[in-house]
Amino acid sequence: MTTIEYKILDPRIGTEFPLPAYATTGSAGMDLRACLDVPLELNAGDTTLIPTGIAIHIGDPSLAAVILPRSGLGHKHGIVLGNLVGLIDSDYQGQLFISCWNRGSASFTIQPGERIAQLVFVPVVQVALQQVDDFDQSHRGKGGFGHSGRH
Ligand SMILES: O=c1ccn([C@H]2C[C@H](O)[C@@H](COP(=O)(O)OP(=O)(O)OP(=O)(O)O)O2)c(=O)[nH]1
């Protein structure tokens, strides 16, 4: 298992609010909690930036992390991410923030310490781009956006 350094930026993390952790041995994501002082009402259509109270430093450029919505909150309450997916660079050392978007039609109150998103670590390949005038012809060529039909 890969080890990633993290910092606790709020004393409630690890005491009042549980540390980020995998819920089961098969979990792909660690739940991220809203590090709030008081409940925050997010009106329908509004977006707000929520602190998590933690910072990570991935360090290794062949890794990154993505912040993804929680399925239940997104499906049942319309609480998703304002940036759709949050990408955490391997050289980022600041606090993790969650852009929370209420895409639903009713206001939703986020409680301090509530699990509102999840953090997934992913492999990354950095490439060198090589400019050419022509590509070797592939079967698909320039066909895209439904070129191969629906079925
Ligand atoms: O949901 C997110 C997305 C990003 N970040 C942090 C980590 C990431 O490494 C940094 C920059 O993110 P990104 O590159 O997507 O933002 P940008 O708008 O392109 O800004 P920048 O100019 O800082 O790169 O912000 C978060 O805390 N939460």
TrEMBL record:
<keyword id="KW-0460">Magnesium</keyword>
<keyword id="KW-0546">Nucleotide metabolism</keyword>
<keyword id="KW-0479">Metal-binding</keyword>
<comment type="function">
    <text>This enzyme is involved in nucleotide metabolism: it produces dUMP, the immediate precursor of thymidine nucleotides and it decreases the intracellular concentration of dUTP so that uracil cannot be incorporated into DNA.</text>
</comment>
<dbReference type="InterPro" id="IPR033704">
    <property type="entry name" value="dUTPase_trimeric"/>
</dbReference>
<keyword id="KW-0378">Hydrolase</keyword>
<dbReference type="Pfam" id="PF00692">
    <property type="entry name" value="dUTPase"/>
</dbReference>
<dbReference type="GO" id="GO:0046081">
    <property type="term" value="P:dUTP catabolic process"/>
</dbReference>
<feature type="binding site">
    <location>
        <position position="83"/>
    </location>
    <ligand>
        <name>substrate</name>
    </ligand>
</feature>
<protein>
    <recommendedName>
        <fullName>Deoxyuridine 5'-triphosphate nucleotidohydrolase</fullName>
        <ecNumber>3.6.1.23</ecNumber>
    </recommendedName>
</protein>
<dbReference type="GO" id="GO:0004170">
    <property type="term" value="F:dUTP diphosphatase activity"/>
</dbReference>
<dbReference type="InterPro" id="IPR029054">
    <property type="entry name" value="dUTPase-like"/>
</dbReference>
<dbReference type="GO" id="GO:0006226">
    <property type="term" value="P:dUMP biosynthetic process"/>
</dbReference>
<dbReference type="InterPro" id="IPR008181">
    <property type="entry name" value="dUTPase"/>
</dbReference>
<comment type="pathway">
    <text>Pyrimidine metabolism; dUMP biosynthesis; dUMP from dCTP (dUTP route): step 2/2.</text>
</comment>
<feature type="binding site">
    <location>
        <begin position="87"/>
        <end position="89"/>
    </location>
    <ligand>
        <name>substrate</name>
    </ligand>
</feature>
<comment type="similarity">
    <text>Belongs to the dUTPase family.</text>
</comment>
<dbReference type="GO" id="GO:0000287">
    <property type="term" value="F:magnesium ion binding"/>
</dbReference>
<feature type="binding site">
    <location>
        <begin position="70"/>
        <end position="72"/>
    </location>
    <ligand>
        <name>substrate</name>
    </ligand>
</feature>
<feature type="domain" description="dUTPase-like">
    <location>
        <begin position="16"/>
        <end position="149"/>
    </location>
</feature>
<dbReference type="InterPro" id="IPR036157">
    <property type="entry name" value="dUTPase-like_sf"/>
</dbReference>
